[in-house]
Specification:
The protein is built from twelve helices and eight strands. The chain starts with a strand and ends in an 8-residue tail after the last helix. Strands 1, 2, 3, 4, 6 and 7 form a six-stranded mixed beta sheet that branches. The chain is an alpha/beta fold. It is elongated, with a radius of gyration of 38 Å. Helix 4 packs antiparallel against helix 7. A hairpin with a 7-residue loop joins strand 6 and strand 7. The longest helix has 68 residues.
């Protein structure tokens, strides 16, 4: 405790200055350092334990302080990696998790402070004693230090450190989910644009059908009823195109929201790179079972939610040790140093005191017993939660893997269907223009073609998302994968096919021509499997880039 009093004295002024010069210097130095430490501690400007370094960057290596969050990037065409980076650093959900991790790092600093002594030096000013007309000054610094508490202090620090590890893992898990949300929103918008383009093509096709019907009516080879049917088909195609445009606008707003911007934010997407061949290799069920087992083990090594669950178990263990230590004695040492100066005395003096205290919790109304019981129950619950997360990871990987197989197969089937529908539409329209066939044939194949194109677009983007979904469930999703620069997992960069039962596949389609890209079963192998393959025409594999509206 620092106290100052000021009074007049009978000793001459110069004698008082000489007697207290050393004391004033000493008190000034001590006061300066005490004020310096107090000011910085109160302002929170110091990080003496370097706790901010414990907030790891994680798998993504990106934070809300990164320069890539600049809005200037929105004026340039955005790739998928741009969308993901903006989402990770700009979305409010991710910023919340970074703040939570920094908060828990500060809690680690609080727990470490228990290993250091505390200095108490309050400042007070006294009044005037007119009877003695004496001026006295003194400064007192008290030190309090916990010597030993049977591991309670260390357990508290361990709990805080494990809470920080859990906060880092939870943050990575939220980033992982936000990462996938950005991917889904991106491909949903791209699919909406492709769907809009497909409906525009369907509208043009319906217009061509109407023109053909009008020409036949003028030539006297058709009736007005066929024109009405063609007009009905054109109106339906136009309605579908208008709805597709609205869906594309909504998908764009959802993507902007996922990146942390308003839905009205203006931006453009860069065109996708041309698709490579979608040929794959057949895998037997036994091989699939072997792969899925390895994938599950890999996921358990990388999933941040499992890391968080394991850290929570360690937190519960440390808190149980804290509860046990609370029922044991603590050893504390307390010291005080006082320097006093009296102007009536030439020399002041130092006074020191030291005291060792042992605090024994003799009886607390059985509170400590039940605290230990609570800690044990919490630990059992955290272990159960960890096991539940582990089982959920196995299920997530299994479902994602099966979805990837299904979408790979569906993409090949949808592409094959689209190629056949294209040929059928061209032949039907050509036959109708030549005076052979009816308008119903043309309208039927045009409807089939529009449906096939929608299914192809959906299958393509579903397949792209399912590859990254598997990576997300395995805990290995990162920015390198959206840039297609990570060849570590071949499964995620190549589509997978499964053997399907042999079915009746005709060598000719409805136009009497062979379907491109379709392999027939080997006649020498009864009951052989028939792999569905994607036709190799560029129009099928490389959908046209669709500019933003």
């Amino acid at each position: 405790m620092l106290m100052f009093t000021s009074h007049e004295s009978n000793i001459p002024h110069m004698q008082r200055l000489k007697a207290g010069s050393f004391s004033l210097c000493l008190e000034g130095v001590i006061l300066f350092w005490l004020i310096f430490l107090w000011a910085h501690s109160a302002a929170g400007a110091m990080d003496p334990f370097f706790t901010k370094r414990d907030v790891s960057e994680g798998r993504f290596g990106i934070s809300d302080q990164s320069k890539i969050c600049s809005r200037e990037r929105m004026h340039l065409p955005l790739t998928l990696s741009d969308v993901v980076e903006l989402t990770l650093c700009n979305n409010p959900k991710t910023r919340l998790q970074w703040a939570s991790a920094r908060q828990q790092a500060a809690q680690v600093g609080i727990s470490r402070s228990a290993f250091f002594p505390t200095l108490i030096g309050p400042i007070a000013a006294g009044g005037l004693d007119s009877s003695t007309r004496a001026s006295q000054q003194s400064i007192t610094v008290s030190v309090n230090y916990l010597l030993y508490d049977f591991g309670g202090r260390a357990a508290t620090l361990e709990a805080a450190q494990q809470q920080l590890a859990a906060a880092n893992a939870i943050r990575d898990d939220v980033l992982r989910s936000t990462f996938l949300t950005a991917i889904r929103s991106y491909y949903a918008y791209m699919a909406a644009l492709a769907s809009m383009q497909a409906f525009k093509v369907a509208e043009d096709t319906a217009s061509a059908g109407l023109a053909a019907a009008t020409a036949r009516v003028q030539a006297g080879t058709a009736t007005q009823f066929e024109i009405l049917q063609a007009k009905t088909a054109l109106s339906q195609a136009r309605l579908n195109r208008i709805r597709a445009e609205g869906d594309a606008t909504s998908a764009k707003g959802e993507l902007a929201n996922a990146m942390g911007f308003y839905a009205s934010q203006s931006f453009e997407l860069a065109p996708l790179k041309p698709e490579t061949s979608l040929e794959g290799t057949l895998e037997h069920d036994a091989k699939i079972e072997e792969n899925i087992g390895k994938l599950i083990e890999e996921a358990r090594k990388n999933r941040p939610d499992l890391f968080a669950a394991e850290a929570q178990v360690k937190v519960a263990e440390a808190q149980l040790e804290v509860a046990r230590a609370a029922s044991k004695p603590t050893f504390t040492v307390t010291g005080a140093v006082t320097h006093s100066r009296d102007p009536d005395v030439v020399d002041g003096g130092f006074k020191q005191s030291i005291r060792l205290s042992i605090n024994v919790p003799w009886f607390s109304g059985f509170r400590d017993v039940y605290r230990i019981g609570v800690g044990q129950a919490v630990l059992e619950g955290k272990i159960a939660e960890r096991d539940q997360v582990s089982n959920q990871i196995a299920l997530d990987v299994w479902k994602a893997y099966q979805l990837l197989l299904t979408n790979s197969q569906a993409l090949r089937a949808a592409s094959d269907l689209y190629a056949s529908a294209q040929l059928s539409e061209k032949l039907a329209l050509g036959r109708y223009k030549s005076g052979i066939g009816s308008i119903l044939d043309v309208l039927t194949v045009q409807g089939v073609l529009a449906t096939a194109e929608q299914q192809k677009v959906g299958a393509l983007y579903n397949f792209k998302v399912s590859k990254l979904l598997l990576a997300q469930t395995m805990g290995i999703l990162d920015l390198a994968m959206v840039e297609e620069k990570n060849p570590a997992v071949k499964l995620l960069t190549e589509p997978v096919t499964r053997i399907i039962p042999r079915s009746d596949v005709s060598e000719t389609d409805i136009a009497g021509e062979k379907t491109p890209g379709r392999k027939l079963p080997d006649s020498k192998k009864p009951g052989g499997a028939v792999p569905l393959e994607v036709p190799q025409s560029p129009e099928v594999l490389n959908p046209p880039a669709v500019p933003n509206k």
